[in-house]
Amino acid sequence: MAKERVYSRYTRDAATLLAKQIQLGRKQRKWTEHDLADRAGISRATLQKIEKGDLRVAIGLVFEVAALVGVALFEAERGSLATQIARTDDKLALLPGAVRKPQKPVDDAF
C-alpha cells in the first residue's frame, strides 16, 4: 500500500489561497464550473479538485485554469516572465550541473 504524501503547512496554505483566487476569478467572470472546465479542456470534477486546493492535480492544469480566470501567478505582466526565466537561466549557468554531497576527508595520518 502506498504511503500518502505529507505536505508542509505552507504548501497547503499556498494551494488553498490559489484555489480560492481561481474560484473568485471564475465567479467574477460569471462562469459556471462547467464553463471554465470546458475552456480549460478538463472535467468538472478536476476543476472542483483545483478549486478545493487538491495538491494531487497536475500543476500544468492548475496554472492553465489560473491563467484563464486572470490569476497572476508570478508577475502581472506576461513579458516579465520571460525576463525572469532568462535571469534564472543565467544564474543556473554559473552553478555546477550536478550537486553532490561532500565526501568525507581521507584520514591518512598513520
TrEMBL record:
Superkingdom: Bacteria
**UniProt-listed SUPFAM superfamilies:** lambda repressor-like DNA-binding domains
Q: Which GO terms describe its molecular function?
A: DNA binding
Q: Which residues form the HTH cro/C1-type domain?
A: 22-74
Against PROSITE patterns, the record matches this protein to: HTH_CROC1
What is the protein name given in its UniProt record? HTH cro/C1-type domain-containing protein
